[in-house]
Amino acid sequence: MGPNPFVGVLYHWIGGLAAGSFYIPFRGVKKWSWETYWLVGGVFSWIIAPWLLAWLLVPDLLRVLAGAPWEALVWAYIFGAMWGLGGLTFGLTMRYLGIALGMAVALGYCAAFGTLLPPIFNGEIATIVHETAGQIILLGVAVCLAGIAVSGMAGMSKERELTDEEKKAAIQEFSFAKGILVATFSGVMSASFAYGLAAGKPVAELAQASLLEHGRADLWRNLPVLVVVLLGGFTTNFVWCLILNIKNRSGQEYLALRRTAIAEVSATEGVVPWDADELAEKGIHDPTTAIARQAEAVPSAAAADEERVPLIANYLFSALAGVTWYLQFFFYGMGETKMGKYGFSSWTLHMASIIIFSTLWGIVLREWKGTSRRTHVLITLGLAVLIGSTIIVGYGNYLKVAGGSP
Predict the structure, then answer these.
(1) pTM score of the predicted model
(2) Cys-Cys link to 83, which of 174, 193, 276, 317 (CB 3.0-4.6 A)?
């Protein structure tokens, strides 16, 4: 099956829906520290899902990876590790700015760097600029960035209008200044994912040959590349979450032990000791017995608190978030195969789609409640511009595929 840019745009929209939705299941996680549920979700998104789907859909996966040039594997892994730093702080962006504003700012940087730098480094930018199809695609990129800017303006308008109490009602840890700094770093580093995919093209070519040899569609050719890039991302996220687990003493949360241990200590802390008259009334004369009996008289905080840690639900919600997150790149890889020669434009489509759906989620979750008409107009305008950018980019790729550019 040959390129079909409009089908590719559809795949990118589905991937954007997955990316814009992945953080929602995390809202169901209770009594876990951020580093705990982020790592559990990451195991599913960076290890389990990519390996499982690549194994099922790409024939001779291990042979493909073993036969790939060593340089391609190393650079794909390195860029994946760099992207991991961006992805790591991406979660913090959601915590501090909310889904709508956080994604708009972070992905604005990510769209610009991830879309334009690969063709610049590959020496393709001059050709792109001088072709009609390329010019239309670059126009679509510019429109996408404009849409992201408008979405950011909506977020800043919200910042000025809502009180601290209203902001924290929707986003408990809202912090505009801290969130902007984290989002900037996250966006720049997250663009490394696009570099990793570009570096892993030799792997994708081997996978395509294997797929065609077995009579399968080449839609899955990017899955082995995702395995390598995401392994790099797992490395940085695992190290950082492990550090936080140790620093915050949250490692025992994986088995619901930490809160139980605290509850066992707190069961006797802050309790006023029985005086001599109370001890005499109860017929207690031994100090050790007195302490034990008093502890028994306190409701079992340990058992109650352990019941309140929904361990199974936390793992299920985290797994759902992780798999949903991976699906964005699963569909991204499918969409990239359909875009034709100018596959670099896939990154713009991906970013625009994510912001479209994350903004819609922000509306559903009432993150914009209490804002003015002006802010709502900006939100609507940003969405319209972003949707328009995906159509423009898709049309530019269509012209290239159809041979409509000189």
Answers:
(1) 0.73
(2) 193
